[in-house]
């Protein structure tokens, strides 16, 4: 089995803080929507339609990676920096900030990003309704178990103004599914005139902490199918009876969760997906692509039904005192990105604490000003990074113009898969390591709704949706900051947060990595109109019986399409038993002269602290 010492049940509710549709109302809303009132530049956070990997953000990179095409000549800007960072996501911003702290405030730093906004997956989604600003989460949601962060990560958060204890006080711990004792919902087709949403304590019921029978009885399954589900959930049957402890471990690491449910539990294909929604969000695939062990660690039911010591583990993990712990801002980790940018470029926005970041006005015209020590250049795709003597030449395309700059050092905080094309001089073994994983694709859609009333009537804030276009639909976490007030009235506007794992059932014999690659191409070919139609249809099916009218109530839709999504983590069923230090991501992230690599791919963990830890490592490698 591969080494996953860092994987725990916390990973189950990663993002499942599934929770988070971030929404909020702030007093400075109208000014925020256009950025600086005197600016004529677009304000990216308020743009609707296709976001994330939006049109124009990947064209030059795809031309390079797919066809080897790059401009033949680059115009030298005459700029010379101490550090150029390729990638303005959380790792890239952290690398710029850490490098500045290591080398002094006058250190000259340029951060390039191919998107029209900074933050990477920590993308801010901002809406306006009736003169109020409402916020959504564009990708990276929350700070999972920040008490376990490294000293470097905790120090950086503290330096940008994040007070973890005070942030905890702004969050409602009962909102997250860790303890699982609040009411959630299951969306299934139960009949043409029914609401289709079955509210109840689903997490508790699926893990032996509440009677599952009343909920399972409402599902549109046959008596035999319901009996097989209840038998698994009641935990009174050992499906691996006769297996030794070693045989149990080997079986659980080498068998898919779906195969276990079919072969050992006797479930039909129709019932398998009942447990897949959260697994798909966290892994990109459901029980078809992950092992029994991974599924159970990821929160799927069954720990009590595979024999000792798993039943003891279930009792340990599923209890109110050991709830999932995560903290969040009203716009997810976009606030963390904004705090870092404001620290690097103070003139970009007023304020200096986390209390004023939600409504802080950012002037995008001030991100890239000549003469300032730190510059952040958007719409700029690096296509060549080459060490030449005692400097590094970074060539890039900015809004169609081929340019190049010089630097003493370079940190690549972009996707691993593009790095071998940027730096063809890398050793072949390192290129192979960089290309090994495939990022997990996903779509996170925010829908601005006229008022919250229909969603309150549905009886649950978080709805799992097996076999639907979106796996999970949820709404606002109760986050309160001095500049941010959580809406509480049925007539308040609402941003509905809808999460989709676009990978279909994995074909037999196809690795998860190849499955993700095929899904990525399909996702890039999916138009906004197609996604919008699916979004409207699912909301109608879920909430029409509660008074929702899609044509009347939907005011805006923002689709965060991340075809290059979360960092690849190793899987029992596909990946070899690599020796410590020899895993592909460890080989791929090696320092190459004046060039270092910092991204979550290099840590094989799609978490905020992984992004910061990678930046800290790369900064130490390249500091003066």
Determine the strand fraction and express it as a percent band. 15-25%
The domain count comes to 2
Which percent bin holds the helix content?
Answer: 25-40%
Number of helices: 23
Q: What's the number of extended β-strand segments?
A: 19
Shape descriptor: globular
Neighbour order of strands in the largest sheet: 1-18-14-17-16-15-7-8
Radius of gyration: 24 Å
At the first level of CATH, the class of the largest domain is Alpha Beta
Identify the notable features of this structure and list them briefly.
624 residues, alpha/beta, 2 domains, seven-stranded mixed β-sheet, 18% strand, disordered N terminus
Question: What does this 3D model show about the protein?
Answer:
The protein is an alpha/beta fold. The protein is built from 23 helices and 19 strands. The protein folds into 2 domains: 433 residues, FAD/NAD(P)-binding domain (3-Layer(bba) Sandwich), CATH 3.50.50; 121 residues. Helices cover 30% and strands 18% of the residues. The protein is globular, with a radius of gyration of 24 Å.
């Amino acid at each position: 089995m591969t080494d996953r010492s860092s994987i725990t049940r916390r990973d189950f509710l990663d993002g499942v803080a599934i929770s988070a549709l971030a929404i909020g109302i702030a007093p400075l809303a109208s000014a925020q929507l256009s950025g600086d009132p005197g600016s004529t530049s677009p304000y990216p956070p308020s743009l609707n339609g296709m976001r994330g990997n939006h049109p124009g953000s990947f064209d030059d990179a795809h031309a390079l990676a797919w066809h080897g095409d790059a401009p033949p000549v680059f115009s030298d800007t005459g700029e010379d920096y101490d550090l150029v960072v390729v990638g303005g996501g959380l790792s890239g911003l952290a690398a710029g900030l850490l490098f500045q702290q290591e080398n002094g405030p006058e250190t000259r730093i340029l951060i390039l990003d191919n998107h029209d906004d900074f933050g990477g997956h920590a993308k801010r989604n901002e809406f306006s309704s009736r003169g109020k600003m409402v916020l959504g989460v564009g990708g990276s949601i929350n700070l999972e178990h920040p008490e376990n962060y490294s000293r470097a990560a905790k120090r950086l958060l503290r330096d940008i103004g994040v007070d973890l204890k005070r942030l905890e006080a702004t969050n409602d711990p009962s909102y997250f599914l860790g303890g699982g004792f609040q009411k959630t919902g299951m969306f299934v087709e139960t009949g043409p005139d029914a609401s289709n949403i079955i509210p109840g304590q689903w997490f508790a019921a699926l893990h032996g902490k509440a009677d599952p029978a009343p909920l399972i009885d409402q599902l549109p399954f046959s008596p035999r199918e319901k009996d097989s589900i209840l038998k698994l959930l009641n935990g009174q049957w050992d499906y691996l009876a006769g297996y030794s402890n070693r045989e149990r471990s080997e079986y659980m690491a080498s068998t898919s969760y779906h195969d276990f449910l079919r072969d050992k539990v006797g479930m039909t294909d129709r019932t398998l997906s009942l447990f897949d929604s959260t697994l798909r969000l966290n892994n990109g695939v459901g029980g078809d692509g992950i092992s029994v062990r991974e599924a159970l660690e990821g929160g799927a039911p069954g720990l009590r039904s595979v024999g000792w010591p798993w039943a003891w583990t279930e009792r340990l993990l599923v209890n109110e005192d050991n709830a999932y712990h995560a903290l969040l801002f009203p716009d997810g980790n976009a606030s963390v990105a904004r705090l870092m940018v404001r620290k690097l470029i103070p003139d970009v926005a007023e304020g200096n604490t986390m209390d004023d970041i939600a409504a802080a006005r950012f002037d995008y015209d001030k991100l890239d000003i000549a003469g300032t020590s730190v510059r952040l250049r958007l719409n700029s795709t690096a296509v060549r990074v080459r060490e030449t003597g005692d400097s590094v030449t970074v060539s890039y395309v900015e809004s169609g113009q081929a340019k190049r700059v010089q630097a003493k050092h370079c940190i690549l905080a972009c996707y691993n898969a593009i790095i071998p094309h940027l730096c063809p001089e890398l050793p072949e073994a390192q290129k192979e390591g960089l290309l090994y994983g495939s990022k997990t694709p996903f779509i996170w859609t925010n829908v601005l709704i006229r008022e919250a009333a229909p969603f309150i009537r549905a009886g649950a804030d978080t709805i799992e949706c097996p076999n639907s276009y979106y796996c999970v639909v949820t709404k606002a976490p109760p986050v309160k900051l001095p500049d941010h007030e959580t809406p509480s009235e049925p007539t308040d506007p609402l941003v509905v947060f809808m999460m989709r794992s676009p990978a279909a059932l994995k074909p037999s014999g196809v690795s998860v990595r190849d499955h993700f690659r095929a899904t990525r191409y399909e996702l890039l070919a999916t138009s906004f109109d197609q996604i919008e139609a699916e979004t409207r249809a699912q909301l109608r099916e879920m909430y029409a019986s509660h008074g929702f009218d899609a044509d009347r109530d939907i005011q805006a839709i923002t689709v965060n399409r991340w075809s290059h999504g979360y960092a690849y983590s190793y899987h029992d069923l596909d990946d070899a038993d690599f020796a410590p230090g020899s895993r592909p991501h460890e080989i791929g992230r090696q320092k190459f002269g004046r060039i270092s690599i910092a991204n979550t791919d290099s840590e094989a963990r799609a978490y905020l602290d992984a992004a910061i830890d990678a930046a800290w490592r790369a900064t130490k490698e390249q500091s003066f």
